[in-house]
Structure formats: structure tokens, C-alpha cells
Amino acid sequence: MIVIDGSYGEGGGQILRTAIALSVITEKPVKVVKIRANRPNPGLRPQHLHGILSLKELSGARVKGAQVGSTVLEFIPGKAEPKRIRVPIKTAGSVTLVLQALLPAMAFIGGSFEITGGTDVPWSPPVDYLKNVTLYALGKMGIEAEMDLKRRGHYPKGGGLVTGRVEPWEERKPLKALEWGKVERFAGISHATNLPAHVAERQARAAGERLGELYSVPVEIETEVSRSLGPGSGIVVWAETGSLRLGGDALGKRGKPAEVVGREAADELLDQLTGGKAVDRFLGDQLIPFLAFAGGEIGVAEITSHLITNVWVVEQFLGRIFEVEGEIGGPGIMRVVKRAEG
Question: Locate the RNA 3'-terminal phosphate cyclase domain: which residues (predicted)?
Fold first, then answer.
């Protein structure tokens, strides 16, 4: 049984998500100890539990320690087969963090999903980023996945709904994406839920104006007005380049002007574009489990502690896979030196 130290490096929930996904992919049992040991509230939180239970269902696993507050988890995968996975998060727990656990495993098995919870919540990628930036990159590696946003869910009520499906990964295409070369256009989605339409419009306008100050290329940001359990707003913008897409996002909150939200997302994207690397800092660590099997090399705008931690978890299962050039906090290159079989 592989033993993973859950307090290693960045020490958060991502260690757990990657470890359990790889346990399903490799069919190797895993024990994660010291789960989130260095955090103010150590152990499993409800949002981690949903990711674990979705992978348990996908793989028919036997699991010990899957309860809130647990600092040790044992996961013994069974025989995984394609199925429809339903994950009913009753709060605004992040839908995209559950998908970060589910997508790598589902890429090898196939299947579909239906997840309720928070689609646009703090400390996790918004659903529009996952759909338009992450899935776009996975498509370049030969992964066919689609995702539909049926309803938004914001903090604290949640109630969002996301459905989708993943085809079994037939052709593993190495990903070579070092520098972006040229920005062809900017696109995005600005949304307002249970709020006036002008909130979405002002976010979009402010983001577009900010991007236009530095790049004279087309800017096409859609606005979306919807209803759900509670109010909320946000915007995701991305750059379409000759290589991958790079993204930036921001969430609205009470008392924060829509113009500030729009500019914040635009500034985040502009910051990611500055060094000319093809992969933004958020996408970098999300790609690690897939890159291990596809092969290739990517240039990342920033090497984060999340990325380094994710590399470490992958290599506990698969042996040495990556070579990392650069320091944490700066730009760098991730190179696959030995592609994993699986």
C-alpha cells in the first residue's frame, strides 16, 4: 500500500484529490496520513469527502476513515467501470474541486457526472475556467470531455448544477506548450445571478477596457443573467493564443463595485501573460496528473507550491516522471522525462 504524507509541501486537499484519483487509475491501494495537518482545522472537510466518495463509487473501492475531521484515509480501489456519478453537495462546496478528483480517473474509465454545489466560490476555480481553459488544454492531449452549466451556485447557499461526460482516453497526445507567441483574441463570461443585468454588463465592460489598454485584439465577453438559490456575480476572461488559453477570474461580493471585479479578472490574466509562458499558474498544477501519462513539456507563468506538491504526489505512484526548471514563485518549465504507462 502506498503511504502519502498529507502534510507534505502545500499540504492541502489537492494531495488527497490527486492521490485518490491515481489510486483508481493505477489500481494501487493508498493510505493518506496527516491529512491537512498544518491547517487551522486539520483533517477532511466536507468538500474533500465528496471527491473521495465520487471516486469510491466510480471504482467500487473500500474506504476507511472517510468522515469529516479524519486525518487518516485508506482507499482500496476495486474494478472501475464507466457510470453516471451523482454528487449532491448540499452547501456551496466547490463543484470544480470535486471535478479535479473525478476528471483524471474518469479520463481512463469514461463516464458521466451530475454535481450540485458551488460553481463560483472562493478558493477554487470557477466552472467557466474549468470548462473553457482546463478542458481546452485536455482536448489538446486527446481527452474528450464536455461540461454543461445548468445553474449557478454561490456562497453560502450553493444550489449550482453541472453535468458532463468524459470519453475513455484513447490517444494520448504529448502536450508541447512552452510560450504563447501571439494573443489572437480575448473572450470571457461575465455573470450576475439574482442581481440586475447591469452588474454583469459593468464587469464585462471594465474587463474589456482594461485588456484593450495593452492589447489591440478583439474582446468578446458574453454576459449572462440567471436565477438560483442566492445572489452572486463573477467573471472569467481568457486569452486565445497560438498555443493554449490562459485565464483570469474574479468574484463579486456585497460592496465591491462591478468595475473593480472586472478589472481584477483582467489584471490577473494580464499578469499571467507577462512572461510569455503558454500555461497560467492555475492550469499548471491541474495538468500534472494528465501530463504524466501524455508526455510533453509546458512553460508555466509561475511555479507554485501547489504544482510542486502535485508532482510529488504523482511520483509517489509512478516513479520519477518530471523535471522542473525554475524556482517556486517564478516562471518555469515542466518536462516529462519518462511517460507513465497506464
Answer: 8-324
Q: Rounded to the nearest 5°, which phi and psi values hold at 107?
A: -60, -30
Residue pLDDT, tens place only, 35-85:
999 888 899 988 899 999 999 999 999 999 999 999 999 999 999 999 999
Tell me the C-alpha to C-alpha distance, in Å, between residue 201 and each of 130, 247, 262: 22, 19, 10
Shortest CA distance to 111 belongs to which of 144, 139, 135, 141?
144
Strand partners, 176: 297
Q: CA separation (Å) from 14 to 42, 195, 286, 300?
A: 14, 33, 10, 19
pTM: 0.97
Sequence-ordered alpha helix ranges (H) in the chain: 13-26, 46-59, 95-109, 127-129, 135-140, 197-214, 258-273, 281-294, 305-318
What are 175's three cell numbers? 502536450
Q: Would you give the DSSP letter of residue 227?
A: -
The answer for residues whose C-beta is within 8 angstroms of residue 133's C-beta and 6 or more apart is: 236, 238, 244, 245, 246, 247, 280, 282, 283
100 is in an annotated binding site: yes
Calculate mean pLDDT across residues 126-140. 98
For residue 285, say whether it is annotated as part of any ligand binding site. yes
- At 341, the pLDDT band (50, 70, 90 cuts) reads confident
Per DSSP, 134 falls in state I
What architecture does CATH give domain 1-79?
A: 2-Layer Sandwich (3.30)
Catalytic positions are 306
Strand order in the sheet with 30-33: 2-5, 30-33, 73-76, 62-64
Helix boundaries (H) for 31-152? 46-59, 95-109, 127-129, 135-140
Question: The domain 179-273 belongs to what CATH superfamily?
Answer: RNA 3'-terminal phosphate cyclase, insert domain (3.30.360.20)
The answer to whether 192 and 228 are in contact (CB under 8 A) is no
* 43 is known to lie in a ligand binding site: no
> Which of 48, 104, 98, 58 is closest to 78 using CA atoms?
58
Percentage of the chain modeled with pLDDT above 70 = 100
Domain spans, the chain: 1-79, 179-273
Q: What does residue 48 show for φ and ψ, rounded to 5 degrees?
A: -70, -35
